[in-house]
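Reopening closed ticket. The problem is back. First fold of the pair:
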Amino acid sequence: GGSCPQKNAEILSSQYGINLFLAGLLLTFAWAVHAVGISKSHLLSYLITLMLLQLLWMLWYLCRSCTQRRLIRDKDTHAGARWLKCGITLFAVITLILDSFKIGYYIDFSNCLSPTEGIFPVTHAMHTILQVYFLWCHAKDIIQSFKTLERFGVIHSVFTNLLLWTNGVLTESKHQLNEHKERLITLGFGNITIVLDDHAPQCNCTTTTLCSIFSQGIYYLYPFNIEYHILASTMLYVLWKNIGRKVEHHQQHKTPFKFHGITVGMIFGLIVLTSTIAIVVVYLIQIGHSKIKSELALTMFYLHAIFVLALMCTAGIVALLIYRLEDRSLDNSKNPARKLDAELLVGTAAGSWLLSWGSILAVICAQAHPKYTWYNLPYSVLVIIEKYIQNLFIIESIHREQEKVNDDIKTLRIVTISRGSTLSLTPSYKEIYNGRAARDSGEVPCLLKGSICGRENGGGGSKEETSQENSSVMHSASDFSFYSRNSVTNNKRRVLKNIAAFLFLCNLSLWIPPAFGCRPEYDNGLEEIVFGFEPWIIVVNLAMPFSIFYRMHSAASLFEVNCKT
């Protein structure tokens, strides 16, 4: 009977959050299309109000936690991993730099900007600091008191971060779109109407140099701000799902990250990362300056991406084949964090799949095909296949049970004194097992086949010595078989760890180009001719944020896989 009110509270809080998000989303859309009577100050005022309400709730929760710090609370050991907290802290620090740039930008243009544009970055900075502290201290909490109130507070925080993410995505996309429109002319697409969507202040800057630094720096920092808010919303969502949850108390094995044994994967991954950064720099320099340079930049990007994606597909297939050779059960226990990871992988991959299928159809249906557009076809096909394989590998990895080492197989060290010398022996599993059986029958196990057994037998005859030698040979064979199997298992594990490390760095590499403006879906122009300029731009602006998030989320999941393997 007690679960029904809590289920109703969960439904009510989720509906509250969805309506909160839809209202903000519609307000954001109205500002983006220059709706009559809607200005940026209205949108910022709404976001400021949401952030202040979340600040009040977090302060109340922290104060209540301090008064009850002596109570023993349940924790979700799978939620809020340390590496995830470190990642969100890094993004939060860069977000604070972004807020400082916005404050400086407001000061320089204060004569013609709304006061809300100065209040927003200050409120956002306070919100960021307190939220990161809250997540560090309470991301693992399983709330069992004031559950109805806490559900509304947590879900409010989830959708506040989602709205801040949406606002960041839209602002960054509008900037990218303006640059894209200016570059289209250089590729010869003069039939596309160029109308810049300008939200620049209508007054002069007090210090031109600082204004240029602030305005340009803001858009280079937005990708980190976008990742910060989406990571915060996912961590808060897990906290919301854990409210009132009953957990089984069992020992959680710590899985620290170690560089030992992943040298090969790290080396190849760093090569891919370095080459990707170089490609992005050259791409951003060359694109838009002339038609020839733009086509060379696109060709270079496609060839590099095809090579990297082919390597990633190969690595993923090898990992899946190793899993097929192993016989290990899957962990199907209830785990909100793991379930969310799997759903986000598949859901966000749909964004890049949509773009890839659009590019494939454009290449097939277009009447004219510039040479560089043919590279778009294998690139788009590989994007679909690579995500399919990688999702299978990650989801199976996070659901596989960790190997449990039997107490009987743990290493035992037996030290004895024989004729004045110290002997050390590590017995095999069969020796330990036979020793236990002998002990149960009242006999003493003969683990040391040298001086101890000889003294106990009193040196009695050649038959005993022959039997002892044969037994030693049999034990040596069993030892060799056991350590051989152990060696094969360790080799498989080492290969999997190297693959996970390589894919981790590759996903970071593929996150960089779209996050920092290297987007061939914008620049090759073929899709815009087939589908029309505005329809394709809408598709790209909707799908690209999910594609970018997929790479960062995959990198985080692969880091966890590397620690777990």
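Second fold of the pair, where the issue appears:
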Amino acid sequence: MADPPGCCRSCATCLLCLYSCQWITAKKEKRKGLRTTKCDYSWFLFLFCVFLFTLVWLYFAIIILNDFHNFNEFIFKQRKLWLDWSLLLLIATAVLITYSAVLLVLALCLQLCGQPLKLHWLHKTLLILTALVVAAAFIGLGIKWAEEWRSARVSLQATGPFLHIGIVGGMTLLAWPLASFIYRTHNTGLKVFLLLVYCTVMIVLYLAPLGITSPCIMEENQLPPKPALVGHRGAPMLAPENTLMSLYKAVDCDVQVFETDVMVSADGVPFLMHDEELTRTTNVQAVFPERAALNSTAFNWTDLQQLDAGSWFLERRPFPTVQSLSAGDRYQVAEQRIPSLEQALEAAKQSNISIMFDLRPENHSDYQSFVNATLEVILQSGIPLQQVLWLPDGFREQVKQQAPGIQQVYGRKRLQNEKEPLLHVNLPYQDMSSEEIRQYRQDNISVNLYVVNQPWLFSVLWCSGVSSVTTNACQVLKEMKHPIWLLPSSTYLMIWIVVDCTSFLAILWAFLLLK
């Protein structure tokens, strides 16, 4: 077996060394009898599958970054340990995909150079471990975070056209080592089988755009207005969540609604707090160590005012943006205290933004008194009631009667034969399809979807026609003047034809050149 033209012996020797983990010279006499066996080809197929498997996980890892802050909060709730786990996820994924990709490139180069594919046992072991780690990651995702499967489906609306181009390109490049192998092997049955499989896959890929749909494939003049921004607990990337500083930072980001969470203290004062415990966002363990594990509602307002609600933000750095805060902002962060609902309503009234909130915990035995106390503060605040968006389902009819001007927001889709038509819905972004969003828009139902942090997701929802989105990244989405991409149907059709034709000609060239 002679070395193909363009493949020097030293290069072939290096490739063999890296792939086989042993120094094997590329001279014929030194590798006499060293041939690629069926077992070796089986390991190459396994390597190819592991690479694809890891590549799919990389895609998922990038997609779930939009929701990863929720995972960090979940881990803290369970283990009282705060860490940005997304960084570890990306590092581990990068290591796995790089390792499998390098091995695959080595194998393809060896095939083009006519060298044997003798994968070392160490590489075999590491490949099996890689496959097991990725499989465990997918299983864990399915068990603990099943909604992310729906996030992946949403993401395909943003990435589908580009994934198609990338996969076609990758399969086109694969034609070179495939042609080299087919011309070298003497097994006619294997040749026919590989050609049939490859041709079938390519035909499917060439026709795939027929099944690709995206709301961003539209004419420029059909683009709906940019969705309004709802600050999730304010602007939590720029200031401690659910504080007055966070509210004002959200105002600077041009948000139209401040979304927050309300609890009621033991002495009846509604205040802003998301977690049932105070440990994550205050220094309660230092001030009241013996009471730190108690529910937030077990503290009276005087006790709550003694807590520092800002320093944790600088210590734990829940978002990378914390590192870029100015000295003035850092000083202001350290001065933050837990705000009352009365203070938040006054700030919202002065800033001319709306306020939307949940009332927690909904399973509390005194929940009706929480509703009464909250309504009393709202009615006494003087804020225009149309600026208040009410999310809690408990005692909603009572709220309608006592404060009919408050806008009622529902955390569900509309029902058939609905007695009272819904005007506002607030749902996870995974729960509504583009078609449903368009239909609600046509029926004048305001749709707010949460939590939307990544520009690609915001772009898809913008093209779909959503009314508003709740976000942690208001400073990022504020700067978007246009969806990331928008393609007229005619342009997309032209790109599809050019990509498929170019791919076909490249494959044809590969088989003719290597013949």
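Update: turned out to be a display glitch only; the data is intact. The radius of gyration is 29 Å. Confidence is low (pLDDT under 50) at residues 1-6, 28-32. Please close again.
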